[in-house]
Amino acid sequence: MINKIQELIKEVEAFSSKQLEEIDQFRIKFLSKKNGIVTELFKEFKNIPKEEKKEFGQVLNILKNKVQDKVEFLKLNAEESDDTKIKLDLSLPGDTDYQGTRHPISIIRNEIIEIFARLGFTISEGPEIEDDYHVFSALNFPEEHPARDMQDTFFIERNPDVLLRTHTSSVQVRVMDNQKPPIRTISPGRVFRNEAISARAHCIFHQIEGLYIDKNVSFADLKQTLLYFAKELFGEHTQIRLRPSYFPFTEPSAEVDISCSLCGGKGCNVCKYTGWLEILGCGMVDPNVLETNGINSEEYTGFAFGMGIERIAMLKYGIKDLRLFFENDVRFLRQFQ
Ligand code: DAH
Fold first, then answer.
1. Residue 312 CA, ligand 1 centroid: distance in Å
2. Distance from CA of residue 112 to its chain's centroid?
3. Is the CB of 283 under 6 A from ligand 1?
4. Which tens digits make up the pLDDT trace of 66-114?
5. Which of the 8 DSSP states describes residue 140?
């Protein structure tokens, strides 16, 4: 009998587990009040011959203590490792980081501002609610120009001299009102047009206007400034092309295309197989505009340009629908950093 208990002690000493369930089964097997091994052995006590009782009792107590110590020790270990397992469970989903991202329009606007800041352009702003003078008259728009039309411009019905600016060129007028040449400034901002909303047009969008007035400013300066800008924004290999155009406030005027940033000029469906993408309007500031705004056109010349930020963002990011910029769907917005 004693030998059997010695064997059991060895078994207890050899047992090991980190699983709480297994440890509990081990405890039940030995210590269960019902028919645990140790409990059963204690029941045997009365059948043991007198002279063996003392030794039997001692060995049985050793077995009982060993089982209890073992269970306690293994439980501690198991509990501890279970704990650390929870802490280090690499398969658990991480804490969601709800940090916001910048709007793609802000990203592009900031990039454009940075490029022109390197050329010494400052930033100037003007009001979104304007009057006819700053949006049209001072910019040489003839009385009957269609841009003044109710169809394009949001007027306040009771007072047609209060309107939402249709372009940021109005800021040119305010800058010339307040500063003497040399002037080198860009004006980012929101503009408003009474247009049907579609994938290509919206009644609100963003523009950046540029104005440079100094002595001896030439068309070559304009061209070189825009080439630098295009290469900085769209990559080193970008080429520009100027097409003659008309704006009331510039003479001569041009529209500027960049070589298609997607196909590199070979022709694709984005550039409609022309290899070129239109990005802005520009020209030499019309002497009429300089004079209206108190700048001597004999002494000073200047250039101006204006571009839509949405259009540039669409080209840079390959976005096909302008409405996405205004819907604020986070699944769209989260893609931009
Ligand atoms: N204001 C023009 C528009 O909204 C854009 C523009 C064209 C601005 C030529 C300029 C410019 O300064 O020189 O379509």
1. 15
2. 17
3. yes
4. 999 999 889 887 865 555 555 677 888 887 777 889 999 999 999 999 9
5. T
